[in-house]
Amino acid sequence: MLEVPQATLVSNKIASAVDPADGKTICSFFSYGKNDLTEMTMGISRDDSGAFIPNYMEQGIWSNDPFNKIDVEGV
Question: Per-residue pLDDT tens for 46-59?
C-alpha cells in the first residue's frame, strides 16, 4: 500500500520495478492509502480534523472534507 506522497509520485517506477535475479516484476498490485496520504499531504490528523474542517468548509477554504473526497489537483 502506498501511503506517502513521494511513493505515489513515483508509483509508475515502483510498478515497473524488476527483480534482477529472475527478471520478473516485483509488484503485481498495490493500492493507495487515502487516509494516510491525505494526512501527510495536507499536514493534518484525521483524528483532530473534525474540530476545524467544518469551519474551513463554511468559510470556503475547502469545498469538501479531504478525507471524504480526494483533492485531485492538490493531492
Answer: 999 999 999 999 99
